[in-house]
Amino acid sequence: MSEADRGVPASLRLRRLRRTEELRRSLSETDLDPARLVYPVFVRPGGGAPEPIESLPGVERHPLESLGERAREWDRDGVRAVLLFGVPRVKDPEGSGAVDPDGLIPQAIRAIRHSVPTLRIVTDVCLCAYTDHGQCGLLRAGEVDNDATVERLARMALAHARAGADMVAPSAMMDHQVREIRAALDRAGQTATAILAYAAKFASPLYGPFREAAGSAPKSGDRRSYQLPIGNAREALREMAADAAEGADLLMVKPALPYLDILARARRRFDLPLVAYQVSGEYAMLRAAAARGWIDEAAAIDESLIAMRRAGADWIITYFAREVAARARREGR
Ligand code: PBG
Ligand code: ZN
Description:
38% of the residues lie in helices and 17% in strands. By secondary structure, the chain is α/β, with parallel strands linked by helices.
């Protein structure tokens, strides 16, 4: 017996269970139910046509005035949940627009809720699209002031909750942001609003297309004083543990595909639902290769999402959500 044969009986034929599509499907270990997908949506004030985003082909900035109509289309395609990002016209040093109870996102929440009451609404809670300097927090003497930022994020989250968001998703990577948001929501009686914590958010170049979409690139410097160093897995797990202890209902890992090791380790360590965010750069890479005919687009999209599910993600936030749901519907899945 050769080394390679040891322990494997001659009767073993793994290919027996791969013979037909019906058999393979019946034994699938990992599903890609559209109910697990969350569709990111960029909202801008006013009316007119949706604006394309060059580095995110197929993704648009939607005007507030037609958002309700759009939501009905997403619903018809089988989208179950959206993650809202505001792209305000006016920005200032304090990100004032972010905390306005009648601001862009509160209005967007009401419009969607009115037109498709069943659509789950998650909102991004961060200041970078609202500040003129583009940092995720408030600046004091040139540095991001953690505690002043957290206070503002809590006001922002409360405005979203009061407008009817099901879930708020703080993404600024400030210490104690989850604890302070939970406290503010509870004090105001918004105990049913869940917190999806961007817990392990790495300082990634893959956010580039998003920053073009949201006009949120930092004017100077970078985000490395708050986002995670890309090589630090243990530190990422400490961030996740902190957010869990502070009251997060779900924990996110972001980006997704390059960080499946973090997701798999988090799956073993935490009992909370886990969420993977397939970010703008991951989307752009797949789209760009597919546009050149270098990969099979639908198959590559599915493979990327199934990999995230296999690693332990309960939900996936992806710009492909709408087309994956529509395809599942067409194919009767
Ligand atoms: C805001 C935020 C970012 C993303 C989600 N929320 C950008 C950033 O941190 O610069 C990135 C999402 C994507 O790239 O698709 N803090
Ligand atoms: Zn931010």
